[in-house]
Amino acid sequence: MAASPHTLSSRLLTGWGGGCIWYLERRAARESPRRFLHLLRNVNQQWVTFQHFNFLRRMYVTQLNRSLKQQIKPKPEPAESPFLEKTSLDEAKAEICEMRPLVPPSLPLSRKPSEKALIGLEPASVTEGSVALGRETKEEKQWKEMKLRADDLPGILARLSKIKLTALVVSTTSAGFALAPVPFDWSCFLLTFVGTGLASCAANSINQFFEVPFDSNMNRTKNRPLVRGQISPLLAVSFATCCAVPGVALLTWGVNPLTGALGLFNIFLYTCCYTPLKRVSITNTWVGAVVGAIPPVMGWTAATGSLDAGACLLGGILYSWQFPHFNALSWGLREDYSRGGYCMMSVTHPALCRRVALRHCLALLAMCAAAPALDVTTWTFPVIALPINLYISYLGFRFYRDADRKSSRKLFFCSLWHLPLLLLLMLTCKRRVGEEGAGAPRS
To answer: What is the C-alpha to C-alpha distance for residues 123 and 125, in angstroms, rounded to an integer?
Structure first.
């Protein structure tokens, strides 16, 4: 039978010493019974040695110190602003010297403040600094009216008119003018160039005016000038009017009425048909392709004054090119278009989106083969254009089969260089004036 702590103590000492040892053993047994019982098992039927006594003494001191630390209430540290977490003591002293050059009134002016006084002033200066920073941050977050400066206006208007898209429209118009089988007229070309550019700027500006509430929900369009409030809607509409009226006038009276009518019809088709259809039906993609196909037709009619087979062929090439271009672009922006509330093939009919893109890639092969038959180019053109048409058709097939972002991006970037290269090859293989089968010169 194991001996009790009282028996062990009485074996070692009696009287006052034995009572102390008994108290310590009882305290240790209460605090850590497992350790003490383990000790008792080891020292059963043995005298308590000097090492056991030291162990009990250390246990007592440790428990006593722990209880004293628990009774002490820690002194709260001064709350510092999160803006000044990395501020060192020297930086704080430097701020105090800069912000408070005067010493407190309790100190004589002839004496410098001691380090203790400076340390006492540190919490106040830190608090004042954090309040000042908080005020500045709050003022920065407050709404401020954006002021339009004269030097920023050209860049804002360029973004309002979608200057890159306008450049593409003007370049396809110029290609249509240059491919016409008539002598090149520089004055007519410049009027066509300026008139088409102004009409495109007007259509794009009105498009942005109508789509402000929806563009603000899309990452692709949230930085447009009207969305950010850089210009007022009145200024945007005024700019569109100032572009549309002289643009259509130049095309009508400076070139010919047919080209002016096509320009006016294209503005109407883009702003009043394509723009609202984007939120209603996927047919907006086909309507938008017609809008993009009209500029080269305008270039042809500006040079020839008539709407014949060559103009329709150029319009057909631009019409088919836009489907792999736009469908591949919209495939990577499906989340954006869905968030903006636009009804696109890539969102509502993804299989149709890929199918249509492949279909029109193959249609480019057929239309390039028809160009020499319509006396637009020589027979060399379909041969030298075959590699790039086969390559874009291959990427269209990959997009149709894989249906992922990687294939759509490859198709989109291929379309960016495919069109200018195709038009350049057409210009190189153009049927010259006076050759057999060429069209009659413009009257």
So the answer is: 6
